[in-house]
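Can't paste images in this forum, so I'm doing it all in text. The chain is below; anyone willing to post the predicted C-alpha cells underneath?
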Amino acid sequence: MAVKQYPEALSIYARLTEQTQHSAHLFEYGSAAAGSGDFDLADRVWQKLISRESNNAQLLWRLAGEYGKMSLFTKAGVLFAKAAKLEPGNLEIQLSLVSHLAKTSSVGEVRANLKKCLDLDMNAEWARFYSAHIDRFDNKLAEAEKQFRDLIAWRPRNPEILSTCHLELARLLDRSERFDEAIIELEEAKRIASQNINHLAEQRKAFEARRDKLVRPAQALPKNILDLWAKTFPVQARLPAPPLAFLGGHIRSGTTLLEKIIDAHPGVSAYDEALAYYTIAPLIDITAPEIPVEKLNFLRQRYLKNLPLDTDPPAAGAMLLDKNPGATLDLPAILRSFPEMHVLIALRDPRDVIVSSYFIRPVHYMHLSLQALAQHYSNVMDVWLAVREWQGLAWTETRYEDIVANLEKEGRRVTDFLGLPWHENQARFYENNRQKPTKNYNEVGQPVYKRAVGRWRAYEKHLAPILPVLEHYCKKFGYD
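Text version of the structure:
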C-alpha cells in the first residue's frame, strides 16, 4: 500500500480479511480496492465496516474523506454529517462538514453549520475563512473583503489558509473590476503556495513528461486509427453499452455550464468529473497494435460500473454524459475502449481560459504561473487537435461565447448532435437543484451571464509573454 502497488495489496488484503475482520484491515482493504479502480468493491468493504462501527465518529470521518477522493460526494456527505452529529464538540470534524456543504448545499445550511464551528472557537482560522468565503459566494462583497483582509492581517499559522485568503480576495477584487489590485493578491497567493507545494522541481519534470507520454503518442496515431482498432475490436465483440458522450476541453472553458444545460434534459444522466476514466485509462496502451478483447470489455464494464456509482441508476435508454475536462489528455485511451462514444469539446477564447485558470486554487505546478498554464493548455489542445482528425469519430465543438450569446440556439445544436430533441427544461437549467457538487457551483446556479467574455483584456499586459504561444490556438479555434 505504501508504494501504491494496489493490485498486489488488494490480493493480500483479500486473503487477510478471510482470516480476520479487523477494522484496520477492512479500512485498508477498501483503500486497496479504490486504488486499483474497483470502486464498487471498495464501497462494499467500507459499508461492512460502517455497519460494524456506526458510532465511531473518527472512522466515519476518515471514510468520508476516502469517499470524497473517489468523487462519491453523496456518501461522503452522509458520513461527514453523521460524524459531526456523534462528536458535536470536535472542531476538525465540524469544519470538514462545512467544507463539504460549501460545495453542495444552500447558503443557509452552510451558515448554520459554520455557526457551530465559530461557537466552538471564534478564532478558528478555517471557520473564519469559510465565513468570508460564504459571504463572497452570497455576493456580500464588502463584508467578505473585510473578513479576508482581517484574517490576512491576523497572519494565520496555516500557510494554506493565508494563500487561499489572498486568492479569494483576488477573485473578489476581479469581480469588482479592481484588476490591478486583484493581480497583486493573486501573485501573493501563488508565492505562498509555491513554498508549500512539495518537490516542485520533480512535479515540473513529471508535468513536462506528460507531453512525451500522452501528447506525442496521440499525434503519432494515423487518421484511420478507429478503423485499425475495429479490426481487432469489432462492434459485435464489444460489451453492450448505453449511449455515451464525453464532454471535455481545457478546464475553465465552460464545461460545467454546458454539462448543466445538457443534464437538464430528462433523457440525459450527466456525471461531473467522475473518476471512472481514471480507473481504465492507465491500463490502456494506445500504441499497442492489439489489445485482447477480454481486457477491453473488462475495462468497458469497469467504466460503466464506476461512472454512476454515487447516484441513482440512469433511466433505461438515457444517454450518459461524462463531463471531464481533466480527462481530455486521456481521450485516445478512452476511445480505444469506447470508439462509439460521442465527443463534445468546449471551446473558449484561449486567453480567457488562461486568465480564469490562473484564478484557480494553486495545488498543482501548472497553477503557479501563466507560463505553466500555457504549456498545459498546449498539451490538452494538441491532443484534441490530433484526435479531431480521426476518420469516423462522432465529434463537435461548441464555443462558450456562442452559448452566452444565444443559449437556446447553441444548446439546440449541441443537443441535436447528441441525438436528442431540445427540452424546455434546458433553458432553465439553473433552476435545477444543487445536489450534484461542482467546483464552479457559485457560477452555474444562476442564468448565463456575459461578464466572463473578453475578461482577458483586463490582464493583457500580464499575458504578454505567453500571447505568442496562445496565438496558434486562437487561429485554430477562430478567435481574433
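The first strand starts at residue 244 and ends at 248. Residues 123-196 form a domain with the Serine Threonine Protein Phosphatase 5, Tetratricopeptide repeat fold (CATH 1.25.40.10).
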